[in-house]
Description:
alpha/beta, Rossmann fold, seven-stranded mixed sheet
Amino acid sequence: MKLEDVEGYLLDNHSGTTDEQRLATLKREISALLERKVAGAFVEVGCYRGATAAYLRALLDLAGEESRPIHVYDSFEGLPEPDTIDGTHLAAGSIRSCQDDVIALHRELGLAAPIIHSGWFHDTLPAELPDTIAFGYLDGDFYESILTSLRHCVPNLAPGGLLIVDDYADVESNPAAWNGLPGVLAACEAYFGRARPLEVLPGSGDLAFGAYRT
């Protein structure tokens, strides 16, 4: 399937978790990363039904990187209990999927399925992350999930590598950013300090992406 067909399918069938600006930003950043020839695996922490993982796979395949692995991590039990800082937008147990959802989506698009790690992040990430990460997409939604993701992914990030933190709403830098999950920014501040070294990625509308680069 051509990349534009993958994009069209995801926009038509997974509009709740992706949109044109997210796909365009991922395409731009991944293309630049591959041009830099950064070594390592791709990981997604919080994969839900696999839409982002499928797009990453399509981008890698288009670039001739069919053998580069993608690892995805999810509890497949929905979200954990939120902290007070996480707000009320999402509750425990919401955004629940299963491994078969991820596999079925990749099969529908003619893509190789990722390596799936099922379980809570504090159980899977310490033992099951690749030693070298070229790209990570952190989509844990809540404070503790993002903090756990940063603690384990940042030390494994390759030179020249990139982490994108979804729902990173730095409204001082980008007043239009969607700010429904404030625990994400708070987790980044807890990990990096208030002078956090994350770049707000530009995008149209309410895109809330933070980028950490090595």
